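Notes on consecutive records. When two proteins share a document, each keeps its own sequence and its own token line. Never mix them. Below: protein one.
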Amino acid sequence: LNKPSTAPLPDALRMGEIPGVGVHWGLAVGVAACALSWLLIERTRWGFAARIAGGNVRAAQLQGLPVGALVVGFAALGGAFAGLVGLFEVAAVHGAANASLMAGYGYSGILIAFLARHNPLAIIPAAVLVGGLEASGGLVQRRMDLPDATVLVLEGFVFVAILLSETLYGRCRVFAPERWGRA
């Protein structure tokens, strides 16, 4: 008890797969949402104002930008995207809303956002990487008789490796242009 759930969705309301690909339509909608987000952030006044406010709130306020409206607007957009993900999770994967919908997506989302570095188009390969780790994790755990937390440990290694690479890149300057003879 105490595990709320909705009634199963009728088959007519379930989302199908993309023909010939073997994945549901959430993938195509997610890629389109990333592309539209990139256009919004990189090619509109609203996105330009948001980048300024994200870089320096005080400077944005001094320029008269509506920082509060930008925060609320982008938070609403993020909430709309989360709702869209929930729609596909229910209609294409589970068939009903239940407690299994909260399966640690927050941690994965933080890792994907960190890997993407404020670039909506970079979300696509980052999500494929993390999704591939999580999807193959069950198979690896069964075949090699590993504990359930193995996938989380692998994701943690990815996160730490990226943090270390940023630290080392800033200190060692191995890839600095002046080392290649260019200024």
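Protein two starts on the next line and is unrelated to protein one.
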Amino acid sequence: MPLPEEVFTGELSDTRRQGLGNMSDSDLKTRKLGAWGLFKEVFNWYPSNYPTNERKLLFKLDLSILVFACLCFFVKYLDQTNISNAYVSGLKEDFSLNGNQLNYFNVCYYTAYVVFQVPGLLLMSRPTLARWLLPSLEILWGICTFAQSRVTNVSQLYALRFLVGMFEAPVFAGTHFILGSWYSGAELFKRAGTWFICNALGTMVSGYLQSAAYTNLSGVGGMPGWKWLFIIDGIFTIPVAIIGFLVFPGIPDSPRPFFLSEDDITLAKDRARRANIRRPGRMTLDVFKRTLKRWHIWVFILCYACMIMSSYPTSYMNLWLEAEGYSVPQVNKLPTVTYAINIVASWLGTTLAAIYPSWLIYTIASTCCLFSSLCMIIWNIPKALKFVAWYLFGAAGCTSPILYSTVNTIVKDDSEERALIMGSMMTFGYSFQIWVPLLLFPTAGPDGAPRWRKGWPAAFAFFFLLWAGFIAATLIYRREQKAKEVLYKGPETESGTEDGEPIVVEVDSSVKDRT
């Protein structure tokens, strides 16, 4: 028999009345939304059907969590990518380096980045540490960033790159974990997409900063321009960390920051309860056992590893432009269109996934990337089409925030498992990036960049497996949700109860319609 909405412990009616879990009626909304309605929904971060105190709470959280997270992510990518900019701006000549040293710098960084993912995420799940961990780590990697401007030999630089990777390790997945602890449903998707914009912005701005430092600061204070880049990045980093100490709230069970009242914390915990976001429990060996027995970790690790591998060649449009004989300014500027598309896709695609079924948005983005990969496999195509293919790779900008928001939604009933899964996704994803590109995406040789006769077919396969893994997760989760919609343990009476009493089970209404 049809399930009455009232039976779900009031979940659906409370959700619709108070605005939590907007995903639950997404299909209904998309049927009613016209172009103007859709436009308004994209920018509707504080719906009018939310109570006033809840809208105020969301605004406070956005000013604290989202602003700090965006600034933190931005400077993370500045400090992560500055070594490549410094290398081509005088570091190579000053230390008499060759191409292998740049690879070694990256190996040092990503080795630490991989090793410290899971420990960092497990620490982020601890209420006492969650509020202070990211700002403290940012202070430490900011100091290491400054220190890179004073190195006198390459061994010192190797050690500092390792430390930067270690301190930056929990930032990406840790921020997703924090977002998933305060927000749910459409709130989560919209904010994750906005936050992820800073990925592309940090990468773009690092190049502009190095260009400005090389042009205007070379020789100032007796230092070359590449050293000034590390100083400038450090100047950005430390103040952001100080802001984090003041405003970053951690998770709802962390020590209360000054700008949140006791009523705010009570409301935040109530929102989490109604959205079925479980509060942190004890970290025991059982966490690892139950995580490894469930399908979540295996499917999501596969998805993220495929995402990392598929995205690797898409950032090397500059090598193709150089091979085609474009000027140096064109080689540097034309690829920024991809970053611009990536920014739009990250924000708009993830926001639309809060309105339409997320699998639909994921399929559209994946189709763009599969088409572009197919063009690269064929290779001998009109130049205009090849430009289109390179730029369409920017559509992948929404795949990461949608994936992590989906993890936050599906595993929200187990904070420790959620932290372990996110850390493992990063660990395995980037562990493959350390060695797989050497086999599939070599720089030189007949199969080298940018032709990559082996690499582009592999990228096509990775894009397809990423999409297939996401769809599989969606279908499995939907099946599990349907299995939970069993209300009766005995024969039904006329009133639909057993012995006159309804048997109540909690059903996650926030994602079943969207997925």
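For the record: Residues 1-31, 487-507, 509-513 have pLDDT under 50 and may be disordered.
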